[in-house]
DNA sequence: TTACCTATCTGGACTAGACCAGCGCTATTT
DNA sequence: AAATAGCGCTGGTCTAGTCCAGATAGGTAA
């Protein structure tokens, strides 16, 4: 009869998880340095890091490139049915949104985008790349691709605000049918860079293809979320 | 002017990804042993492993516990709107489904399940745990929790088939409103064990709360998918 | 033929270090 | 007071191994 001895990684995970769940380490607070922690748990930094990566996978902690490890705040509820735009959604949940434009320009459409927007080959599209925060924390990198036909001069407007509101105010365009595609995957380099996370961090890719109130295919978004930042919900009736 | 030298891990990832995408390593085929690969890329096993874990995060490869690394097959399309049961969905996409019952019994409901099914404290529920395969590969671990009031004697039926069909045939119950909740997270131990993956592998948790055609809350499922096995889609009109 | 045993191969887990690059604070300079 | 240069600390990346346990396949005995 021998005792079941759990792996070191598991032991560390459980210890940290317990501390987090009992509120000793509040959301947003910083963990001690990896070297400190590896001393505390009497193990190698490699082993300790493996435990941290696990907790990251569970969504309990996250890292900021070369700054340290932090306790994850609660996930944002993302309801596919009661969709509103980012700012409204975040504020409705009592949190503080922020948006920052990374780039915005007219450019040749890639094959993928031509497909999504049903444009002929060699079309031009308006690409808008933005990074978005909840309570200061970078959580979302989005690439918007707009059919330029419907949005003349949009590049001259302030794109730090909600596109949904710009559409309504300047173009009288509102969202009608929307198609979502969700894929759990690693963040690609552009997204990882914009969100200041190490490349290859787990993420959730949500692609949206949007029609307007008149059924025209107006734009699509590629959203890359930190995987621990949201939980998606949907209510479907009468399948 | 110095050359930008990419990290070893990135180099390995790109090399393998290129081989995979050009079909030299077809879906389901096995990669060489880690030790072999680390020789091929002239690096440590630890570094090589890090690259493999990255490709796993991207969903390009997966591992089977102590058996090796394999190329991931295409993702299953999981449409929230046009929902059918697992077997029908898999077959409709030209693939071969299989289900295996792990356990099925009447037991006291946990607090979480009481909440989801709106049952009073200390209620009993029928728990059915199953593992499901696509083309032989284990991809999904599900825990079903049924309100026993609506499903007398169900434990005496063959639970390897579709529950949806059992409901219809024996109880005249069909799904009406369904609520989905999706959270990217690491697979918990039960799921990892059932799917024979190493604990802490990335996964997608989909919780469903199901009403029947008469609006009664009949059951809920906790689905744990291998994160690289599905992509979820939904079409929403008139937001 | 069948059942079992065993050697070998695989991934899983871990040790004990090293060097580098970016962040942030401090002390200096302007 | 503001700009800057320096430096220490942090995570990021990598080396070169070890030991262990499950999976597999080949051979041996019933």
UniProtKB/TrEMBL annotation, chains A, B:
Stored PANTHER family: MANNOSYL-D-GLYCERATE TRANSPORT/METABOLISM SYSTEM REPRESSOR MNGR-RELATED, TRANSCRIPTIONAL REGULATOR OF 2-AMINOETHYLPHOSPHONATE DEGRADATION OPERONS-RELATED
Molecular function, one GO term: DNA binding
Domain HTH gntR-type: 6-74
PROSITE patterns listed in its UniProt record: HTH_GNTR
GO aspect biological process, one term: negative regulation of DNA-templated transcription
Gene3D superfamilies to which the protein is assigned, alphabetical: Chorismate lyase-like, Winged helix-like DNA-binding domain superfamily/Winged helix DNA-binding domain
Protein name: Transcriptional regulator, GntR family
Annotated organism of origin: Pseudomonas graminis
Coiled coil: none
Keyword terms: DNA-binding, Transcription, Transcription regulation
Superkingdom of origin: Bacteria
Lineage: Bacteria, Pseudomonadati, Pseudomonadota, Gammaproteobacteria, Pseudomonadales
Pfam families referenced in this protein's UniProt entry, alphabetically: GntR, UTRA
